């Protein structure tokens, strides 16, 4: 189907009526709905639909650089590029395709990309929606035949929440994190679940494969399962930052939380012919007060 600006996007559906939508602009998932049609990802009501800028919401892909810790612009260029549909996707394990509706997107460097990042990479992104409504993103990044290169990576996942003050994250307790609000200084998380009373912008290190985001008011838990993504970025801009973003409503920090599967602290290095896989699976479970996942 056509997107907001005539750029194609692909809509995936499952037999129970859940859906996901991914745009060829940036390979960005822009919607993920459950079988009741509820939107599970946040997109700002003030999002600017003007390529090459990434839309504020959904799941922008940060590659080959997360943040502004390198020579490229913030979060690299993959989210600003037009991807293509890979018509003959490589075979995947049955668990990764069985009973799923999926699409494979492909990004290769343009001449312009090679000028600012001279590496011959091939980036295949598989977006799939399972029969139970869970959404899986699998990134396969390969060094085709150039000299070794390194990159950092994140699925910048904007989760929709009912009220940020009623949200907590479980699974990151006692871990170290780099605090982007304090010159990336390293701290250690206290023992409890993470809750939110002010701006948070942290990279949690050496995180477990499963992280849970509990939305107390909606009695809903997002379960994030990941492989190849050792770090988790947690970001809420809160009031002051919200006001500084033109494509973000002043009060919208209350309805969103970024919890990003990432590889940041230790960038990934690929020798010629080597391939890296970063897998993220998002699912939603109804949660009572305590969290069982
Ligand atoms: O998700 C963490 C973060 O690096 C924040 O510091 C904030 O900059 C956010 O990404 C959004 O970045 P963007 O370039 O999309 O405005």
Automatic annotation (TrEMBL):
EC number: 5.1.3.15
InterPro entries referenced in this protein's UniProt entry, alphabetically: Aldose_1/G6P_1-epimerase (IPR008183), G6P_1-epimerase (IPR025532), Gal_mutarotase_sf_dom (IPR011013), GH-type_carb-bd (IPR014718)
One annotated Gene Ontology cellular component of this protein: cytoplasm
Keywords: Isomerase
Broad EC category: isomerase
GO terms classed as biological process: carbohydrate metabolic process
GO terms of molecular function: carbohydrate binding; glucose-6-phosphate 1-epimerase activity
Catalytic activity of the protein: alpha-D-glucose 6-phosphate = beta-D-glucose 6-phosphate
Any single Pfam family the record assigns to this protein: Aldose_epim
Protein residues bound to substrate: 56, 74, 79
Similarity field: Belongs to the glucose-6-phosphate 1-epimerase family.
Protein name in the entry: glucose-6-phosphate 1-epimerase
Organism field: Hibiscus syriacus (Rose of Sharon)
